Structures are given as C-alpha cells and as structure tokens.
C-alpha cells in the first residue's frame, strides 16, 4: 500500500515536471523556425548597419558643423564616437559574414546575440575603458523592439540579449563608481528601472505569444495533413479492392458471370468500411455546426454498461483484456442520454485496446463528486506524455501507435463533445509506461429534474447518432 502511494506520488511529480518542459514541436515547425531566424537575422543585420551609417553621418556632420544638441558633450567623449562606431561596424559586418558560413547557419543563436550586443553592450564596454558610463536606454529600446518585431521567435533568446546588456549596466558601473553621466546626471532611477522592466516584458511576451500561435498553426496543418492522408488511404483501399474484383470478373468471356460468396462478402466489408468512414466525417462535422436534442433519462450506470460490455466481449477476448468493473449498484442515478454515454465508454475502452499491446488490464470505476458522478476508465498500458495527453481530445489527433491503424482519430473528440453536451468535463491523467486514467463527470438526477424529465428533453450541441 505504501509502495503504491509512493509510486503515485512519483508519477504525479513527473507529470507536473512535464508541464515545465517546452511544448512539443514538430520537425516541420523547427525547420521553419530555423529558416525564419536566419532570414530575419540577415534583414536585421543590414538594417542595423544602415542605421549605424546614419549615425556616423551625423557625427561627421557635427564635426564639420557643430550641432547645438551635442554642444554640451566633452570633446574627449565625442572623440570616442569614431572608435565606437568602427567597432560596431566591424562587429556587424563580421556577423553578416559568419551568417553566410556553414557554422553560422548551424548557430543562428550566436549570431542573434552578437547582433544585439554589438549595439547594446559594445558601446558600454568601450566607454567604460575610458571612464565614461554609456547607458543608452533609448537605443536599447530600439534594438529590443526591432528584435521583437522582425525576429519574433525564441523568446528566451530575446531575454538573454536583454539581460546581458542590462546586467552590465546594473553591475559594472556601480563597481567602477560610474554612476553619473558626462553632464552630471545620475544614470540610475526608479523610472528607468520600471521602464526597462515593462518594455522588455512586453517585447518578450509578444514574441512568446506569436511563437505559440505559429506553433499551433503548424500543428494544425500537420494534423490536417495526417487526416487527409488517412482519409485517402482508408477510402482508397476498399475502392481499389472492389475495383480489382470487378475487373477480374469482367475478364470472364461468359455473358453470365458467377460470383462466389467470399468475393461478395469482401466487397460488402469494403463498402461497410467506406460507409463507416464517411459517417465519422459527417458526425465530426455535425458536432461543430449543428445541435440536437439529448434524450435524457434517469438511469443507473451499471445497468447502462451491461449491454455495452456484452457487445464488446468479443473484442476484449480477442485482445486478452482483463476488465474489472468496480462500479457499484447503489450509486445514485444519472440524468443522461444512455445511447451517447454508452458510446463514450465504448470509445474509451476501444481506445485503450487500440493504443496498447494485448493483455492489458482495464478498470472501470465511479464515485460521487458533488452534484456529479465521476467515472473513470483506467489501464496499465504504455501511457503517454503530458504534451500528448493535452491535445488528445482535439479533432483528428491520433496516438503514436494508432497512426499505423485504420481510422480517423475521431473517437476521443466525440467523447469530449458528448460529455460537454451533458454539462460535464473529461480529461486524462497519464505518464509514460504508467498507464492512462480517462475520467469524465456526469450529472446526477436532481429533484427538480425528476419533475421536468417527464415531458422535456434537454438541448445540447452535439449531432444525432448516425
């Protein structure tokens, strides 16, 4: 007993740790992000170089025709401008050259940080060597905003570039006693701190949200492509089989063609499979755009399950499944559509069988949870990661093992639609090699619903059974 509790505690900690990991990224999305980062780095490097040239032109103009706005700067300070601009130009050109090399294409993160720090960190370091603080908050803001606008990927990279520049400003200057500008103004103030904090936070948040949106879009496209491939394969196979049978029959020279029973049975099976797939597609579409009347009635859960388990007995036997039904007979009645709830149990049990090797153990259980009945279908199979379980109920999502099996991956999505239509919730708790526990809640029969149940059915957004 103690070992079981400890094992559950470890599984819970692992599942929580999974939530801290970066979300799953497909290979297509990673490849796109790398290409996008390299292309935008090239654009930003050219923009930064052109922008630097404009400031160099300004400094040259000021040297020939002194500008009023720069008249208060000491000459020794202004003499450092060509050095700073030269080092920045060399650094930016070096980044451009490196970006074209094989090493630079493999390490765009280094180029990104070099680009950012060439503008925000290099001037600070050079000025510090001559005893001048150079906290150019305005130029930092321009750099951070440009990065977030033109390179909105890898938010953590933006954070590192910001921390590098600001950390130098917060640590090196106080250590060297450089706490005032050349005009004598303090370089530290609460307004500057708040401004930098919120500016960087907003930039990083914008990058994070854009990246999450792009990742979701890529995953949706990938799932749609998998779905289309599945439909093409699953519909083409029975059609090709029927076509081959008919072609072989037409090769017979006789006017009357005799067809044996086996061929007819195979053609009928193929036709039934096509009809099943088409019905699944219609059902998934209907659950998004139509509504129907749930035929609710007060039922006992165990009585509802008897027919479902009896119908699934051949499937359970074929896959050597050990099923334990812990649902008690004395549980309160639930107010549900028995046909649809039977489909939920059927889909969840079939899903557990499909995603696991033969010989698994299934446990059905239910308990009262407030005004609902919390039901569970638990297996001791291969389990799944947190990222997989998080999107398991989405449309056309299939497990790794089920990708090699026929079907469109609609079962769990329909389960979610049915439970949601009843006003309940559905979820899964799982960890790799620790099985999966699918749970959902169903409304209990209340006194008020007993009076209304005689002549009323509740409406919900879900398609009629096909």
Mean pLDDT: 80
Number of domains: 2
Please mark out the parts with pLDDT under 50 across 5 or more consecutive residues, or reply none.
16-21, 399-408, 450-466
Number of helix segments?
A: 16
Question: Major sheet: order of its strands?
Answer: 3-5-6-8-7
The proportion of residues forming helix, as a percent range, comes to 55-70%
The coarse overall form would be: elongated
Instruction: Give the topology string: H per helix, E per strand.
Output: HHHHHHHHHHHEEHEEHEEHHEEHE
Q: How many beta-strand runs? A: 9
Based on helices, strands and strand pairing, what is the structural class?
Answer: alpha+beta
Measure the end-to-end span.
Answer: 46 Å
**Rg for CA atoms:** 33 Å
Largest sheet: 5 strands, mixed
Topology:
Blueprint: H1 2-20, H2 27-64, H3 75-79, H4 81-99, H5 102-106, H6 108-120, H7 122-129, H8 137-150, H9 155-176, H10 190-250, H11 261-289, E1 292-294, E2 297-299, H12 301-318, E3 322-325, E4 334-336, H13 338-354, E5 361-369, E6 372-379, H14 386-390, H15 411-421, E7 426-430, E8 436-443, H16 447-452, E9 458-460
Helix pairs in contact: 2-4, 2-6, 4-6, 4-7, 6-9, 8-9, 8-10, 9-10, 10-11, 12-13, 13-15
Describe this structure in words.
The chain is 62% helix and 10% strand. It is an alpha+beta fold and 466 residues long. The strands form three sheets. It has a five-stranded mixed β-sheet. Strands 1-9 form a two-stranded antiparallel ribbon. It has helices spanning 2-20, 27-64, 75-79, 81-99, 102-106, 108-120, 122-129, 137-150, 155-176, 190-250, 261-289, 301-318, 338-354, 386-390, 411-421, 447-452, and strands at 292-294, 297-299, 322-325, 334-336, 361-369, 372-379, 426-430, 436-443, 458-460. It starts with a helix and ends in a 6-residue tail after the last strand. It is elongated and about 100 Å long. It folds into two domains: 24-220, no CATH class; 293-460, 2-Layer Sandwich (Heat Shock Protein 90), CATH 3.30.565.10. It has 16 helices and nine strands. α2 packs antiparallel against α4 (81-99).
């Amino acid at each position: 007993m103690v070992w079981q509790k400890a094992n559950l505690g470890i599984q819970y900690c692992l599942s929580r740790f999974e939530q801290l990991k970066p979300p799953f990224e497909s290979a297509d999305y990673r490849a796109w992000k790398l290409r996008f980062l390299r292309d935008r780095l090239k654009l930003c490097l050219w923009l930064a170089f052109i922008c630097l040239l404009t400031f160099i032109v300004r400094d040259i103009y000021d040297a020939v025709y002194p500008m009023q706005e720069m008249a208060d700067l000491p000459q020794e300070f202004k003499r450092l401008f060509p050095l700073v601009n030269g080092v920045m130009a060399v650094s930016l050109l070096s980044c451009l050259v490196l970006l074209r090399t094989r090493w630079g294409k493999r390490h765009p993160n280094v180029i990104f940080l070099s680009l950012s720090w060439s503008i925000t960190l290099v001037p600070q370091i050079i000025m510090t060597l001559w005893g001048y603080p150079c906290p150019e908050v305005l130029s930092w803001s321009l750099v951070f905003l440009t990065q977030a606008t033109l390179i909105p990927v890898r938010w953590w990279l933006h954070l590192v570039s910001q921390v590098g520049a600001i950390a130098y400003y917060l640590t090196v200057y106080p250590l060297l006693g450089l706490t005032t500008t050349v005009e004598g103004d303090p370089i530290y103030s609460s307004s500057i701190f708040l401004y930098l904090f919120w500016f960087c936070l907003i930039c990083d948040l914008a990058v994070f949200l854009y990246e999450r949106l792009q990742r979701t879009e890529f995953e949706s496209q990938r799932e749609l492509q998998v779905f289309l491939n599945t439909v093409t394969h699953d519909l083409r196979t029975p059609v090709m089989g029927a076509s081959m049978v008919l072609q072989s029959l037409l090769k017979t020279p006789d006017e009357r063609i005799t067809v044996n029973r086996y061929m007819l049975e195979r053609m009928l099976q193929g036709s039934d499979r096509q009809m099943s797939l088409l019905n699944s597609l219609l059902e998934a579409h209907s659950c998004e755009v139509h509504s129907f009347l749930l035929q609710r009635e007060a039922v006992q859960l165990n009585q509802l399950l008897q027919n479902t388990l009896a119908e699934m007995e051949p499937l359970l036997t074929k896959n050597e499944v050990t099923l334990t039904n812990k649902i008690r007979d004395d549980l309160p009645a639930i107010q549900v559509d028995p046909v649809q709830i039977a489909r939920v149990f059927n889909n969840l049990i079939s899903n557990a069988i499909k995603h696991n090797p033969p010989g698994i153990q299934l446990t059905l259980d239910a308990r009262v949870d407030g005004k609902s009945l919390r039901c569970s279908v638990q297996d001791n199979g291969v389990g799944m990661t947190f990222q997989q379980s998080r999107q398991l109920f989405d449309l056309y999502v299939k497990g790794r093992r089920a990708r090699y099996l026929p079907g469109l991956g609609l079962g769990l999505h329909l389960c979610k639609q049915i439970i949601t239509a009843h006003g309940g919730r559905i979820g899964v708790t799982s960890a790799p090699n620790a099985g999966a526990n699918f749970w959902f809640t169903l409304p209990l029969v209340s006194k008020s619903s007993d009076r209304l149940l005689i002549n009323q059915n509740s409406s919900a957004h879900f398609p009629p059974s096909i």
